Amino acid sequence: MSRKLKYNLILDAEFMRMKLPLSEKSYISLEENIFDNGCLSPILLWENTIIDGYKRYEICRNWDLPYVTRHIYFQSRDDAIAYICADQLKRNDLSKEAVSYLIGKQFEAQKNINSRLAAEQLHQSTETKRKPGRNTNYSYQTAIDLGKQYKISHNTVYKYGIYARCLDIVWEKEPDIIKKIFSGKLKISHQNVVELSRLPKAHLRTLNKHLSNDGIEHIGYSDMRHELQWKRISAATNPPPKKEKPPEHDFQIKKLPQYDPDAEIASLSLTIPSWIGTIQRVKENTDFTQISREARNKLLRQLHNMYEAVIPLIDQIREDKRNG
Q1: Which has the least CB within 10 A, 49, 131, 163, 231?
Q2: Among 213, 177, 172, which Cα is nearest to 192's?
Q3: What DSSP assignment string belongs to 45-113?
Q4: pLDDT tens digits along 22-34
Q5: What pLDDT does 79 receive?
Q6: How many CB atoms lie within 10 A of CB 260?
Q7: pTM above 0.70, yes or no
Q8: DSSP conformation class of 300
């Protein structure tokens, strides 16, 4: 440990994002405690970057107070992220959205850690001429382990991973929207977070103004596409070019077919039964004890990919049904 009065520590944006903010009441209480008793809890550092203690550091710098630091070693950034998420998830003041985000972030980091550890083990096994360990689907096994830890299904862990990735994308473009979500002031489904992540930065900024000015507390898919009128928002942020006078040609313009909003859905609905038939045929005709590990893992990966595509679509349909 070392005591420092003036020491410029590094503030990492992603790490700070996972250290969800204290309420105003909790912050004032922490500030008063440091005034009265000093900063007794050490600020945790990885090299020179703060891992834990942002608010303590902020208070001490603002009032020129001494503080204590303690260093911790992580092999990689993923290890640091997994540690921060696990530590934050011990809090009892987190919103449901914040918990989902942190579990998703931990999942994304931990599966990379597990893959790295397995690669290191394989390398060591090769060097010592030992038989390599069993090949594993690290994403699946990590989801199973975290599901048991947090008492949720592994499929929910997968869903939280997608949710966390999309929230990070939105955060980079318009962080105030995410702050509203984490604080519980704004309700939005996981699927609609995916939709938000696909919007340009200018659109998200305009949306945030609508949310703030109109006091909107819930965003549904229909809200994004109709009530908030994305066409109007797009026009405001990307004005159309001035219309030019059309050339005077004597010919007829071919009339385009009318847009059918059900076309894509109808096509997908016709395709899915063939998938179901193929899956049932595989179940009935395959001896799974005889198939190769490579074939098993390849099928498992594709089934998980299908699941990650299907669940958000089901959520979106249900969301629109409730709003409709």
Answers
A1: 131
A2: 177
A3: EETTEEEE-HHHHHHHHHTT--EEEEE---SSHHHHHHHHHHHHTT-SS--HHHHHHHHHHHHHHHHHH
A4: 778 888 999 999 9
A5: 97
A6: 9
A7: no
A8: H
